[in-house]
Amino acid sequence: MSSQRATAFVPGHVTAFFSAHPADDPVVAGSRGAGVTLTDGVTVRVSAGDDPGSPGTGSRTIDGETGSIGAVDDVLDELDAAAAGVAVETDLPIGAGFGVSGAAALGTALAANAAFDRRRSENELIRIAHAAEVARGTGLGDVVAQARGGVPVRLEPGAPGVGELDGVPATARVEYVTFGELSTEVVLGGDTAALSAAGEAALDRLRADPRLPTLMDAAREFASEADLLVPEVAEAITAVDESPEEPDDPGAAMAMLGRTVFALGTGLSDAGYDPEGCRIDAAGARLVGERGRE
Amino acid sequence: MSSQRATAFVPGHVTAFFSAHPADDPVVAGSRGAGVTLTDGVTVRVSAGDDPGSPGTGSRTIDGETGSIGAVDDVLDELDAAAAGVAVETDLPIGAGFGVSGAAALGTALAANAAFDRRRSENELIRIAHAAEVARGTGLGDVVAQARGGVPVRLEPGAPGVGELDGVPATARVEYVTFGELSTEVVLGGDTAALSAAGEAALDRLRADPRLPTLMDAAREFASEADLLVPEVAEAITAVDESPEEPDDPGAAMAMLGRTVFALGTGLSDAGYDPEGCRIDAAGARLVGERGRE
């Protein structure tokens, strides 16, 4: 049999607000909340054999450097594909609130399923990636959001078959600036009661008015009530607010969980920042290529 | 207030097999089955006011000619947007099994919601379009499939909140040839018991092995068992089968419900046909632009 390889793309995901819903079963655990998926994301190449130009057997790289992500290894184990070569590539900053670990896990699930001909459905692959990410404590809601694309609203926590999603029907340019890392494990490992109460209130607000300006308003209120706002982000939000370009501009908010500010339209550029720019990703996670079996 | 307009794109959807599940409530009614969504689709432009270059108040056009689609009018009524100008544009043949009416209804829901600032969520808009399409008798499962994109598997019938979806994780080129129309209303209005039994069997097969070659196999078996195969389509399926290019080629199948044959890869070209070509659409229905409110 010829060697098999496949490539998947998974959008970045910036959470605007959330409530944490832990459970013993990682398929059932998750978060409620909302965010935006980004055309900036993570590309995962998986190879089931050695051939030139493909990741070598058993290799693990992140942006070309040797390195592994726990949830990725767990996904490969679950698919009986630990021998895979896996190359993760992303322009997004890692540990800054873009869901890179969830994207890497989901991209690995999609690409390894194709490369190893594992015959799982989309829901099964999302479930495997979600469970791996939750069990590693690196995220609660990124995977299901990244699978859907657009502006996902997590109505009920958990993987497909357990959780429930809706979406804000919208498209927009997104800008972001990152000031550094913030540990998801530390925040999620602490007392999340106040955070979750603020997250539930924000979700109720968005469900009553599912539009982007309301999402951004609810995100700002959540960051402040959950006491997660860091000084550089707070300053950027104020600067975007005071920028005179667009009186109805939806403004900026903090990415959960990262020292990252994001804005819709040209909010950060207008305020004098030098942001990265992309768009809301309509498609969600997807296989982009297969070789060897077709 | 300035005039508002918005544009949505909805992929075409070719149903491979299905079972019909009628119900008094059109939100609950629907179909189980599977198919592929196409990058060839329907673009709907909706204008909430008169301005140059936008569809005029109350106007309805299909590919530039005056004409309306029942489900589109019902969606506009439901959104209190009957004054909208609506321009539907598509390269797909109408009435040939591509879900054009469902796509037009869903695209209208997305674009009218944005143009008229109706503040509905994605699930609500899909529900409105699904109910309109089912009530008009022009389709049962296209709308929910088109909303998801990719290779949608309809596990349970009905709109979001009632139905349930999965997907075959795959990407591929799709080719198609159309030989003419076939009335969805006539087939769905007749005795659907044998058809639905064949559809359920095909779905069980695909769930056990969610891959494209299995989808195509199950589709061929369904068309034959449900006695829906028309001569030109049967001939094309045989021709693709006998084409020597690729021994493992997944072959061709009939689009439900149309006098249309579709193939993955280059099956129809290889067999000497002159097909239209596109790809599986990863994204599903999406808003592609808004003006006036941002």
Q: How would you describe the overall organization of this protein?
A:
Chains A, B: Its EC number is 2.7.1.169. Chains A, B: Phosphorylates (R)-pantoate to form (R)-4-phosphopantoate in the CoA biosynthesis pathway. The structure is a homodimer of 294-residue chains. In chain A, a hairpin with an 8-residue loop joins strand 1 (5-21) and strand 2. In chain A, helix 1 (70-78) crosses helix 3 and helix 2 (100-115) crosses helix 4 (142-148). The two termini of chain A are 12 Å apart. Chain A has helices at 70-78, 100-115, 122-136, 142-148, 184-189, 193-208, 212-225, 231-242, 267-270; strands at residues 5-21, 30-47, 60-62, 65-66, 85-90, 152-156, 164-167, 173-178, 252-254, 260-264, 276-279, 286-291. The first copy, chain A, has a single domain (1-287), classed as 2-Layer Sandwich (Ribosomal Protein S5, domain 2). The model of chain A has no long low-confidence stretch (mean pLDDT 92). With 294 residues, chain A is of the alpha+beta class. Chain A contains nine helices and twelve strands. The interface between A and B is medium-sized, with 35 and 35 residues.
What attributes characterize this protein structure?
Ribosomal Protein S5, domain 2, homodimer, alpha+beta, eight-stranded mixed β-sheet, 12 strands, 27% strand, globular, 294 residues
Based on CA inertia axes, which overall geometry of chain A fits? globular
Q: Which CATH top level class of chain A fits?
A: Alpha Beta
Gap between N and C termini of chain A = 12 Å
CATH architecture of chain A: 2-Layer Sandwich
Q: How much β-strand is present in the residues of chain A? A: 25-35%
Structural class of chain A: alpha+beta
CATH domain fold name of chain A: Ribosomal Protein S5, domain 2
Largest interface: A-B, 35 and 35 residues
Q: How much helicity do the residues of chain A have?
A: 25-40%
